[in-house]
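JOB MANIFEST
job_type = single_chain_structure
chain_count = 1
residues = 185
[input]
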Amino acid sequence: MSKGVDFKAILNKFQINEIVDHTLIYDRKIYIDIFHKVKQIRMKKLESRKKALSGAVTALILVIASVIIALVVVGFAFGLFGAFSTTPNIHLVSAYIQNGVLYITVSNTGSASGEILGVIVQAGGSATSVSLTTAVTVSAGGSATISVAFSVSLSGLTLTPGEQVTFQVVTNTGESVSGVATVLS
């Protein structure tokens, strides 16, 4: 007869928590069958563990997703995604004054056309508002040059070459674009 094996000790070794008969096993064939059964049960437990993500990986994925969502929300809130906006975005390109005429070049980087309604000129401690007879349309992605003639007697301004004149361009959206023009002559 072969040496006896404690079945409960084998199950404890493989961390199998099942109710087992406490008798000793003397037959080698039964021992091998039980060993294979224990091995199959243990392999099934290992396979079930491999299918799931660990807690650390899950937490990392959630943090990354949260950061991406936060960036998208901030981008929309502050208008960083200009392609989705349908408003004009008018910027000053250049400005100068020559022979009593203020020349202003603006560009529109928005996705909709915008209109220039008027100009407010500030020089010599006074301000003069000039309304355009016809609104100047600046198409989306385009640019336009506005010329505003003002006489010294009408505006009360005295302009000397080299002087800096502050102005604001008023648009149809109620926004204004500020700039500085230099008097050339």
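[summary]
Residues 10 and 35 are 8 Å apart (CA to CA).
Helices lie at 7-13, 28-50, 55-77, 152-155.
exit_status = 0
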